[in-house]
């Protein structure tokens, strides 16, 4: 277990002090998982470095982050696969249940310009 405190080095929020609280690196069936007590976006690779992980040596790195990670990780990866999981930050707007929206409206309806 470690205290996750560092200063962001990536273009997104460079110089920002990050405190993700207590964290631990779990290893399950050959998979490294980092769990933090304080929720934060992953802006750069520092959280991995603090846990002894060099992401450049990894075949796959998965982040729970919406878009902010790209500033640092696009340069560190061959390609990025975006996953649209259910929740408030879904990319597919048609999945939300709208009750007071005048229709048709872009991007919910395909025939709207």
TrEMBL record:
<dbReference type="Pfam" id="PF07171">
    <property type="entry name" value="MlrC_C"/>
</dbReference>
<dbReference type="InterPro" id="IPR010799">
    <property type="entry name" value="MlrC_C"/>
</dbReference>
<protein>
    <submittedName>
        <fullName>Microcystin degradation protein MlrC</fullName>
    </submittedName>
</protein>
<feature type="domain" description="Microcystin LR degradation protein MlrC C-terminal">
    <location>
        <begin position="2"/>
        <end position="100"/>
    </location>
</feature>
